[in-house]
Structures are given as C-alpha cells and as structure tokens.
Amino acid sequence: MLKTLAATACAVLAIGGSASAAVITLDFEGLGNEVSINDFYDGNGGPDYDITFSPNALSIIDRDAGGTGNFANEPTPDTVMFFLQGDEATLNAPNGFEDGFSFFYSAINFTGSIDVYDGVDATGTLLASLDLPRTGRGPGDPQGDFAVFSPIGVPFEGTARSIDFGGTQNQIGFDNITFGSALPGSEGGVDPDIVDMPNIPDTTPIPVPASLPLLAGGLGAVFALRRRRG
C-alpha cells in the first residue's frame, strides 16, 4: 500500500446524536495485531464514537512495525482493517452520519465494494454504493506486497447508519475511514494533491505490470505462515 498523507475536509457529522463541525476519522491505531475491532470505537479502548464493527472485522499491524501484515505505505502507520471470514465486514453507527463517507483501500488481486445504508446491520435504504477496482502493487517500506492505498469516497443525501465493506477475505485492506466528508482524513493534515482530486469517484484501475505477479497469499499471509511453523 502507498504511504500517503490523507486529506482532511470540513463537513457536518451526526454522531452521538448531535451535529459536529469536525470530521471523524478511524485510523485503527491503538488496536492490536489480528484482533477484532468490535466496540473499540464505542469507548472500549478507543474514542467513544458510538461505532461498532462486526466480529469478523480485524485490525492488523504492518510487519515493518512488528506486526504480521503483508502491507506497506498505509496512510497512518501502522494499522489497517481487514477480514478473514465471509465476504464483507459491517460497521454500525446507530446515531447516524451525513454528507459523505471516504477511506483508503488496497486490493492488489481482487476488486471490492462499499454499500452505505440508512439502517443498522446493512438494512433499510441504500444511500450510496462504490465499486473498488483493483489497486496497483507498489514497493514496500521496505516490506509489504499490498503497497498502494487508493483514496476514494462518496457524498450522499440522508442519514447513514451502517456500511458494508465488501471484498475477498484476506485480500483487501482499509484505512482512515472518514465520516462526514467525501475526502479521507488523517492526522497528517491536508495533502493538496488529494484535495484537488475529483471527489467521486475515480475508479480507474491502476494496472499491475505483467512482469510483477499477483500475490499468492493475502494481507495476513505472513501471520498464517508463522502460525503454521510455530
């Protein structure tokens, strides 16, 4: 994945029952390696944003930072979200959020998708949907095959309360999930190159050179190998 500073934009966010002028970004820092995110963002170890994840949504740490993740250049080091079971992970924000939603992702082998609903647990009206093309495979930092993180986002009307992150298990990673803006945020401040990008969505696939084979494993492949050897 490509280490890059994310953009921060100002929008209205309805979390915790009241509108806020600040954009909220989940960067997954502070979570462990290969652990369920669950209610970390509901005040159980992390900020209390009233946000929870389905049990299969996991955090994983870059192996260059002591974890087992087969990725690099994540927008905020050193942790991202992925899943090892099923074909999607769900985020619930029962108090709702408005205006837009954005994130960075890496998917070098298979495509993914995002669906935004106005009900919890991916129910109710579909407010927005995004197809996630396969990203490129770039150099690590120094290790990591999932080494390009692409920014993407979508504006919508209404109040969203859940998001489905779809894709192939162990083959797609997400970082800097941002509520209230179609531009992904980060603690690194504003990157003019990303601010100037077309808001929604540039879904042009980044080609993978023919001389560079696709990864046989996935984001958690290094962890799996070490576990078997142990």
Overall structural class, as computed from helix and strand content, comes to mainly beta
Helix fraction, binned, reads under 10%
Mean pLDDT: 78
What is the fourth-level CATH superfamily? Galactose-binding domain-like
H/E element order? EEEEEEEEEEEEHH
Number of helical runs? 2
Share of β-strand residues: 35-45%
The number of distinct β-strands equals 12
CATH class, please? Mainly Beta
Helix-strand layout with pairing:
Elements: E1 13-15, E2 18-20, E3 24-26, E4 35-36, E5 52-53, E6 57-61, E7 79-83, E8 88-106, E9 112-119, E10 123-132, E11 150-166, E12 173-179, H1 192-195, H2 221-229
Antiparallel strand pairs: 1-2, 3-12, 4-6, 5-8, 6-7, 8-11, 8-12, 9-10, 9-11
Task: Give an overview in words.
With 230 residues, this protein is mainly beta. The protein has one domain (13-202, 215-229): Galactose-binding domain-like (Jelly Rolls, Sandwich), CATH 2.60.120.260. The protein is built from two helices and twelve strands. The protein has helices spanning 192-195, 221-229; strands at residues 13-15, 18-20, 24-26, 35-36, 52-53, 57-61, 79-83, 88-106, 112-119, 123-132, 150-166, 173-179. A hairpin with a 3-residue loop joins strand 9 and strand 10 (123-132). The model is unreliable at 1-21, 186-216 and 222-230 (pLDDT under 50).
Provide keyphrases for this structure.
disordered N terminus, about 230 residues, seven-stranded antiparallel beta sheet, 2 helices, three-stranded antiparallel beta sheet, about 35% strand, Jelly Rolls, globular, mainly beta
